[in-house]
């Protein structure tokens, strides 16, 4: 059976996340430098193989001091773990337009299995004749599962940074 390779279109993709700060507001961030590929059976995405990696140094929350703290050993520890990676083990169709993505997420050298719902936007041809697909991945992880443990208690009770990290990932791929 013939396979198709899909490469990420970074100008139409975003790897985004949100974390609660001081228990009541969200801080948003994204990774600016990343790579992702999909290998599928022609245009059938059931059991497609998906791989992703991001350069941790490209983390961007709109605040240089916070970004530098996130790069430090308190969080991502880019000196020892400069990349975050994901490799799928299954991509299973739930119903038209919806899939479950399961695989291994590696952060700080800690690898854990994760499962996320994926909205598949379909296959389209852009005005230049390129065949494209769109995926929206949402979900939540507990940052402490990967050793991102730093926190600080706040005077009013609670902590400065939530354990839960919500993901909002918009991906556009081009057929190769």
Automatic annotation (TrEMBL):
This is YceI family protein. Residues 5-174 form the Lipid/polyisoprenoid-binding YceI-like domain. Coiled coil: none annotated. It comes from the Bacteria. It comes from Flavobacterium frigoritolerans. InterPro entries: Lipid/polyisoprenoid-bd_YceI, TTHA0802/YceI-like_sf. Gene3D superfamilies: Lipid/polyisoprenoid-binding, YceI-like.
